[in-house]
From TrEMBL:
It is an enzyme of class 2 (transferase). It is found in: Membrane. Its EC number is 2.7.13.3. Residues 41-258 form the Histidine kinase domain. This is histidine kinase. Its main location: membrane. Keywords: ATP-binding, Kinase, Membrane, Nucleotide-binding, Phosphoprotein, Transferase, Transmembrane, Transmembrane helix, Two-component regulatory system.
Length: 261
């Protein structure tokens, strides 16, 4: 009888061990699945421009009698695909860094308003070319402790998108002010907008709302996931609101007194 009790006890503790081990394995398996999906998506994104380049090079090779104009067009198209691959690899490296245990950001004191004005200056020629008005409402002398280069990268992504998805005669507005213990930055545009059903996914890796259009615009679908990582590395928060045809608004809240690293 006692022997039977010991045997049942042993079986029960063995089963409990199995259940616990299984529970512990679930997050590892989930992370593994996420990683495999990421590699599959990245490979797919790289394959498209590579096969376009291959087709163009084969064209050049098979038709040596083409005119210089025809060859220039083929070379130009190949070059723009090479640029796409470069951008994709750069974005992938940034995300790989965000996933690693490496030091994520390198904070210093700087004036936030100066960073935003620099961004506006850098995008002014593109806005002018596209006939889009950039307006700003930025408080002066906003001292902030953070990674200026990463935050520059964040606003390049957001302002580049705002200009990309807004047509001529539209507006892009950039505002920044101190609100209690945080900085509130809003970037809104009067562009095409994002469908409501897509809004929960726009910060996901490789997510594109309008796939054909964004590919045409040179998008990788990685920009907003990098933007989210940069904001969160500064202990901040980023949200998006949008209405089709009316426009899109990104709001970023960055705490001023947070200790980083
Ligand atoms: P992409 O490199 O394709 O622009 P992002 O991650 O930056 O990738 O953006 C994801 C998707 O969100 C875009 O493909 C686009 O469909 C949508 N999107 C981002 N910003 C805007 C915006 N300002 N206006 C309209 N759609 C936007």
């Amino acid at each position: 009888m006692i022997g039977l009790g010991i045997a049942v006890g042993l079986i029960l503790s063995y089963l409990a061990g199995l259940i616990l081990a299984n529970k512990a394995l679930v997050p590892i398996q989930k992370s593994w699945e996420k990683q495999s999906q990421f590699v599959a998506d990245a490979s797919h994104e790289l394959r498209t421009p590579l096969s376009v380049i291959q087709t163009h090079l084969e064209l050049l090779f098979r038709h040596p009698t083409n005119t210089i104009e025809q060859e220039s067009i083929t070379i130009f198209k190949s070059l723009s695909e090479v640029k796409r691959i470069n951008k994709l690899v750069e974005d992938l490296l940034t995300l790989a860094r965000s996933d690693s245990d490496e030091k994520q950001i390198d904070p210093h004191w700087f004036f936030f308003d100066e960073l935003l004005r620099l961004i506006i200056e850098q995008f002014a020629p593109i806005a002018e070319m596209k006939d889009i008005l950039i307006e700003d409402n930025i408080e002066d002398k906003l001292q902030y402790f953070g990674d200026k280069n990463r935050l520059h990268q964040l606003f390049v992504i957001l302002v580049d998108n705002a200009l990309k998805y807004t047509s001529a005669k539209g507006r892009v507005n950039i505002s920044c002010k101190k609100e209690g213990s945080l900085l509130r930055i809003v970037i809104f545009d009067t562009g095409v907008g994002i469908p409501e059903s897509d809004l929960p996914f726009v910060f996901d890796r490789f997510y594109r709302s309008d796939k054909s259009r964004t590919r045409e615009e040179g998008g990788t679908g990685l920009g907003l996931s990098i933007a989210k990582w940069i904001v969160e590395a500064h202990r901040g928060h980023i949200t998006v609101e949008s209405k089709l045809v009316e426009g899109t608004r990104f709001t970023i809240k960055l705490p001023l007194k947070e200790r980083l690293n």
